[in-house]
């Protein structure tokens, strides 16, 4: 592989890893916030237990979203400095706004939420998770603004050797953005719900102690899974009109066509199953009682992840050979002076470290699911029987 | 407008050193601080001392490390021509810094996810190594920036400056731990000392920043872009500051035996 192929592969691998974790973060954050809201309103302990259990899954997953996100943020400057030289005046703005206005607050509020259990007043603590959700969505929005600019450089004009920003509003109403953003939000809810459904099915199937807890969780998962799948499928179809206008040949290569068809097949099939199968079976908890169906529900858990990655592959490979569609080629965006050795070194470092950590993270999530809601570290209160004071031992 | 965004960049860099400095410092000196606690006759095994030290920094880390994310974002948004040149010009240094950062964070996030001292000991070692990597790469990066991006940044000067950064962070970390684990009676005194060491930790970044300030001004984004950034980001500044203040108001000195010290930490 030459430098360009290596740098592209590095970006594709770290970007795909990033989205695998981010898509679950985007889905679980609002669902955990809803569970905690129900706890604060009703005061019922089951909702607090749900908040802590699913919240723990959410934060374990969150860690890898951050690790991979750090590499994504710096990679533009590391390997694609041609992009910042040509389009930095435009592309840099949404990314800067994302870090300052969205992620800065998301990280700060998440710290308050994780470590503020049993310390912050209940309602302020609840406000933290809603602020985390809100800023996570804002973050997704600004990243999509930046990505949509690469798909369709609206609101810009070429001045000399670089692009100048002439109409910021056009960046925000980019046809490549307006349907894709709700599509991503739907995909997130879809993914988060299916993790909840799969994990609940596991406990229902194994007949572990917390049947009531997981019956309720399953219901939440199915209802929001329906909302998410509907949004994802609906706004997915709504994109075709725009895409035909701005990138007419996008899905005509074998790779993009396969990726698109895979995503659409999963989306439609699962949407159909949720709407006509799972949703009606919520009546009288038939789904929770039908033990023979639970292995099927568990097997469906990876599907939204596969669909999400396929969707990105279709969107990004369909942009090739351009980094800024119609304006700047990927080959012209690579940083000058990079050698094969440098990029091989960084690719092995990033992919190796992040790949291993991702594997560990998924094993930790699986273990947290298996352990169930009894022994959750997140929000654990002071031990009822504190260790005896050392002074007495002397 | 250029001056405002230069100030934002400077505040983020210096603030990152003053805040994240103690997190990195505690990670670097974790084995030594734990041993010191043991020698001082405090109860618990060495592993439990490490738990207490990590629990001391835990609630601040997410709010502190994000200053660097914001710094990189600001560099891209307000100084785009510089961003590509600087990051790709220090390619191996930036890769080392990122890998160290990821490993440090992985140590924090993973150390308590399984029971058992072997698991926790392993991730504590990763946390320690990552923290050293962060401090040293920062030193190498700053020395490289001041010298105009030399081809071989990992030379004696770079590593010496890395040692300076590491020493400043370790110094800051000691005073942070003293403050966080102090009781109400000593909080005022240790708090004043913490402010002082924050200045010490910030100096290794503040000096190069001051030296580079005027040349940075020549590389800002176009006025139109800076206007957009200002309209979008500056009105939110009070919320950013407020959120950070909220963290510091929520998590104060723990004392070593108080109720707060007994709430298990997530990290």
From TrEMBL, chain A:
Keywords, comma-separated and alphabetical: Cell membrane, Electron transport, Heme, Iron, Membrane, Metal-binding, Transmembrane, Transmembrane helix, Transport
Residue spans crossing the bilayer: 12-33, 53-71, 91-115, 127-145, 180-205, 217-240, 260-283, 295-314, 345-365
Top-level taxon in the UniProt lineage: Bacteria
Chief localisation class: membrane
Membrane topology: Multi-pass membrane protein
Keyword Electron transport: yes
Cellular component, GO annotation: cytochrome complex; plasma membrane
Signal peptide: none
Keyword field contains DNA damage: no
Molecular function as annotated in GO: electron transfer activity; heme binding; metal ion binding; oxidoreductase activity, acting on diphenols and related substances as donors, oxygen as acceptor
Compartments where found: Cell membrane
GO BP annotation list: aerobic electron transport chain
Family named by the database record: Belongs to the cytochrome ubiquinol oxidase subunit 1 family.
PANTHER family assigned to the protein according to its UniProt record, in alphabetical order: CYTOCHROME BD UBIQUINOL OXIDASE SUBUNIT 1, CYTOCHROME D UBIQUINOL OXIDASE
Name of the protein this chain belongs to: Cytochrome ubiquinol oxidase subunit I
UniProtKB/TrEMBL annotation, chain B:
Any single Gene Ontology cellular-component annotation: cytochrome complex
Coiled coil: none
Entry keywords, A to Z: Cell membrane, Membrane, Transmembrane, Transmembrane helix
Annotated transmembrane regions: 6-33, 53-78, 90-110, 122-146, 158-182, 194-216, 228-248
Subcellular compartments: Cell membrane
GO biological process, one term: aerobic electron transport chain
Pfam families with a match to the protein in the record: Cyt_bd_oxida_II (PF02322)
Keyword Phosphoprotein: no
Domain of life according to the entry: Bacteria
Membrane topology: Multi-pass membrane protein
Keyword Flavoprotein applies: no
An example Gene Ontology molecular-function term: electron transfer activity
Family classification: Belongs to the cytochrome ubiquinol oxidase subunit 2 family.
Name of this protein: Cytochrome d ubiquinol oxidase subunit II
Organism (species): Sphaerisporangium album
């Amino acid at each position: 592989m030459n430098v360009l192929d290596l740098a592209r592969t590095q970006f594709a691998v770290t970007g795909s890893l990033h989205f695998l974790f981010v898509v679950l973060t985007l889905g679980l954050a609002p669902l955990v916030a809803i569970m905690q809201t129900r706890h604060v309103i009703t005061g019922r302990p089951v909702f607090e237990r749900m908040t802590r259990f699913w919240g723990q899954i959410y934060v374990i997953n969150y860690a890898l979203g951050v690790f991979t996100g750090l590499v994504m943020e710096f990679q533009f400057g590391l390997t694609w400095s041609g992009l910042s030289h040509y389009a930095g005046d435009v592309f840099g703005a949404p990314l800067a706004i994302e870090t300052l206005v969205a992620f800065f607050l998301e990280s700060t509020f998440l710290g308050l939420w994780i470590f503020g259990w049993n310390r912050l007043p209940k309602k302020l603590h609840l406000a933290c998770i809603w602020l985390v959700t809100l800023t996570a969505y804002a973050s997704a929005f600004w990243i999509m603004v930046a990505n949509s600019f690469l798909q369709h450089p609206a609101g810009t004009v070429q001045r000399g050797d670089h692009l100048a920003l002439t109409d910021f509003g056009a960046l925000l109403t980019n046809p490549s953005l307006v349907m894709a953003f709700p599509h991503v939000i739907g995909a997130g809810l879809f993914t988060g719900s299916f993790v909840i459904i799969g994990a609940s099915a596991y406990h229902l199937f194994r007949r572990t102690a917390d049947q009531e807890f997981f019956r309720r969780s399953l219901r939440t998962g199915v209802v929001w899974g329906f909302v998410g799948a509907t949004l994802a499928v609906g706004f997915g179809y709504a994109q075709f009109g725009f895409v035909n206008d701005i990138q007419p040949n996008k899905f005509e290569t074998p790779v993009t066509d396969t990726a698109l068809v895979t995503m659409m097949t999963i989306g439609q099939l699962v949407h159909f199953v949720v709407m006509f199968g799972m949703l009606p079976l919520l009546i009288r908890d038939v789904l929770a009682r039908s033990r023979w169906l639970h292995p099927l529900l568990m097997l469906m858990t990876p599907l939204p992840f596969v669909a999400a990655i396929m969707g990105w592959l279709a969107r990004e490979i369909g942009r090739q050979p351009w980094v800024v569609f119609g304006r700047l080629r990927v080959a012209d965006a690579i940083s000058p002076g990079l050698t094969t050795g440098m990029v091989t070194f960084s690719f092995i470092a990033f992919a190796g470290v992040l790949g291993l950590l991702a594997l560990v993270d998924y094993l930790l999530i699986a273990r947290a699911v298996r352990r169930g809601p009894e022994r959750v570290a997140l929000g654990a209160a002071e031990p009822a029987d504190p260790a005896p004071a050392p002074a007495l031992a002397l | 407008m250029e001056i405002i965004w230069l100030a934002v960049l400077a505040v983020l860099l210096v603030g990152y050193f003053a805040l994240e400095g103690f997190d990195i410092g505690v990670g670097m000196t974790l084995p030594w601080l734990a041993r010191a606690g043991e020698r001082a006759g405090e109860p618990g095994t060495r592993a439990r001392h490490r738990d207490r030290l990590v629990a001391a920094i835990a609630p601040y880390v997410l709010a502190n490390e994000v200053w660097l994310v914001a710094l990189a974002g600001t560099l891209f948004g307000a100084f785009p021509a510089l961003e590509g040149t600087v990051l790709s010009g220090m390619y191996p240094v930036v890769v080392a810094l990122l890998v160290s950062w990821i490993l440090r964070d992985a140590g924090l996030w993973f150390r308590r996810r399984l029971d058992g001292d072997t698991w926790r000991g392993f991730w504590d070692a990763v946390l320690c190594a990552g923290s050293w990597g962060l401090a040293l790469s920062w030193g190498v990066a700053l020395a490289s920036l001041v010298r105009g991006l030399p081809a071989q940044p990992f030379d004696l000067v770079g590593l010496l400056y890395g040692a300076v950064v590491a020493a400043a962070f370790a110094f800051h970390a000691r005073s942070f731990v003293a403050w966080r684990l102090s009781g109400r009676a000593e909080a005022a005194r240790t708090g004043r000392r913490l402010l002082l060491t924050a200045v010490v930790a910030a100096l290794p970044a503040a000096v190069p920043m001051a030296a580079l300030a005027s040349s940075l001004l020549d590389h800002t984004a176009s006025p139109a872009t800076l206007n957009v950034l200002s309209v979008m980001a500056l009105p939110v500044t009070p919320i950013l500051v407020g959120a950070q203040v909220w963290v510091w108001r929520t998590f104060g000195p723990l004392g070593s035996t108080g109720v707060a010290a007994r709430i298990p930490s997530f990290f």
